[in-house]
Design brief:
The protein is an alpha/beta fold and 258 residues long. The protein has 12 helices and 7 strands. The protein starts with a helix and ends with a helix.
């Protein structure tokens, strides 16, 4: 997720690589970072000599697994100023972040991977003491990779389930549609392309025309036609219910991680 957020900013020139410093937990992660990121990005193992540079930066992005949070916080040195700490960790509350990083002003961000192509969605919840100027700075940062919303913290789990887990659900649908097209006789590469373009075009139509999904479904479904025959099979397979339960399960898991 850190790469999804930062890489487009480096590529666009909005964030100079030499202005970045990163710390990672494992030697393998450090090798990967040094191999694939610009050489100007300074990188360190967490807790090693020089890694304190990251913790003295005025703006910090925390992007680790929630299970690693305690170890990261234990290795963080005391800060001499009051930097902003932006956490993208699922389920980790502002209260817990503030307790672990008492010298920081904390922000929770819930972005998603379409940020890689500038089509992201990010929800922001502000911790105590974050000024309006700092809020504007953070919103500008995330606006460079997509749409930004401000939400109460108690809405972030549902937002995450729909927008951050959602791309995986949609990818599964795209793969299944492609498999169906192959079964019906299309070559694999063409089936992939058509499935992706169909999903993208449908999403754009729903968005631009502000259509309720049910309206578009009815527009496409003619009496006794091919679409309604396919929809019957989807309903028999419980696809609608499965999607609802997938989003709910993701939200519940986010709450458990807290």
């Amino acid at each position: 997720m850190a790469k999804a957020l930062v890489w487009p900013l480096i590529e666009s020139g909005e964030l100079p690589a030499e202005a970045l410093a990163a710390t990672v937990a494992r030697p393998a992660s450090l090798e990967e970072l040094q191999a694939h990121w610009p050489a100007q990005v300074r990188s360190f193992l967490n807790g090693s000599a020089g890694s304190e540079l990251v913790w003295q930066a005025p703006l910090q992005l925390l992007a680790v697994k929630p299970q690693q949070l305690a170890a990261v916080a234990a290795a963080a040195p005391e800060v001499e100023h009051t930097p902003l700490l932006i956490s993208v960790l699922a389920g980790v509350t502002l209260e817990r972040l503030q307790r672990l990083f008492p010298g920081h002003r904390c922000i929770r961000a819930v972005p998603n991977t379409p940020a890689l192509v500038g089509a992201g969605l990010t929800a922001l919840a502000w911790g105590q003491g974050v000024s309006e100027q700092q809020q504007a700075q953070v919103k500008t940062l995330f606006a460079s990779v997509g749409e930004v919303l401000e939400l109460p913290e108690d809405k972030l789990d549902a937002f995450l389930a729909l927008t951050s887990s959602g791309p995986a659900f949609i990818a599964l649908v795209a793969e299944a549609m492609s498999d169906g097209a192959v079964a019906a006789g299309l070559p694999r590469d063409l089936a992939h392309h058509l499935a992706h373009r169909t999903l993208a075009g449908t999403a754009e139509l729903l968005h631009q025309r502000c259509l309720h999904p049910g309206v578009l479904k009815d527009m496409v479904s003619s009496p006794g036609g091919t679409t309604i025959a396919g929809l019957r099979q989807l309903e028999r397979g419980g696809v609608r219910s499965a999607m609802i339960e997938a989003v709910v399960a993701a939200a519940e898991r986010s709450r458990e991680l807290a």
